[in-house]
Hints:
Elements: H1 8-13, E1 34-45, E2 55-66, E3 70-73, E4 76-83, E5 88-95, E6 109-113, E7 120-124, E8 134-144, E9 147-156, E10 164-171, E11 174-176, E12 179-190, H2 192-199, E13 218-230, E14 235-245, H3 248-251, E15 260-271
Antiparallel strand pairs: 1-2, 1-15, 2-3, 3-4, 4-5, 5-8, 6-7, 8-9, 9-10, 10-12, 11-12, 12-13, 13-14, 14-15
Amino acid sequence: MSGRSAVAIAALLAAAVPSVASAADPVEPGEPRWKLGVAFGYGERSNPLVQSEDIPVLVDIDVAWFGERWFFDNGDVGRTLRNGERYTLNVIGRFNSDRVFFSKTDTEYLSLFAGELAGPQQEQVEAPDRDYAFEIGLELLSDGDWGFVQAAVHQDVSDRHRGYELYVDYGRTIRRQRWFFEPSVGVSWKSAKLNDYYWGVRAEEANMLLPEYRADAGLNAHARLATGYQLDRHWRIVVAAQYERLSGEAARSPLVAERSVVSGFAGVNYRF
C-alpha cells in the first residue's frame, strides 16, 4: 500500500482542503526520496470574500520528500504509523488553508451614502485579522481497483481557532496510454470554533456595513478533475478544475459574497 503522494496541480487548486492523495509505492532502496516538479501555465481561484480579488496561479512548485517513515509533502509534515497492504495511516502536521482568502482583501474603504444633503461619507472597513492555524491529525489512505479514498481529522494545536476538521475524499485514477484522468469528490466538516474564527465577525470588528456574526459548524463539499497527457519522461500537459461549495454557516457570513469557490489551471508540468 502507498505511503503518500500528491497530484501537484490538484494540490494548488485545493488550498482550503487537503491535497488529493493517490497510490504510490513505498520508497525502495535506490529510489530517489525527493520528488520535485514545477508547472507553468495560467490558473485562477475565486475568492468568496467581499471586497476581494481572485487568486491567480502562474507557477506551481511541487516539492516532496519521502523517507522510510517521515515525509514532507507540499507543506504537510508527517510520519507513517502503519503501512499495510490495504491502507496507510499517517500522523500529519499542516497549516489550515482558510487563511489564504484573507490575504486578498485589500479594499480598505467602502462608500456609504447618507442622503443628498449629507453627501457621500467614507466608512472604514478593516480586513479581519485572521492567522494561519497549525493543526495536527490522523490521515487514512486506501486504494484498489475501485479507486482511492483519503480520510483525515485535524485539530488546531496553535491556539488559533481551537476547532477541528473532518475530511473525506474519494476518487479514481484512469490511465489510457499517455493520458490520465483523476476525478474525485468529497466533503469537509468544520467545527463551530473553526468556522467562527475565519467566517465570524467579532463585536469589535462590526460596523454599519459589517454586522456582528457568529458562525456554527458546517459541511463543505467539493468536486475536482485533474487530467493530463504525458509528452515524455519529464514533461506533460495538465488541466485541472475544482468546484467547492461552502457550508451555509460560512455563506451567511457578512464577510462572504459568493458561496462557491471555483478553481482552474491549464499548463505544462515538468518532473525532475
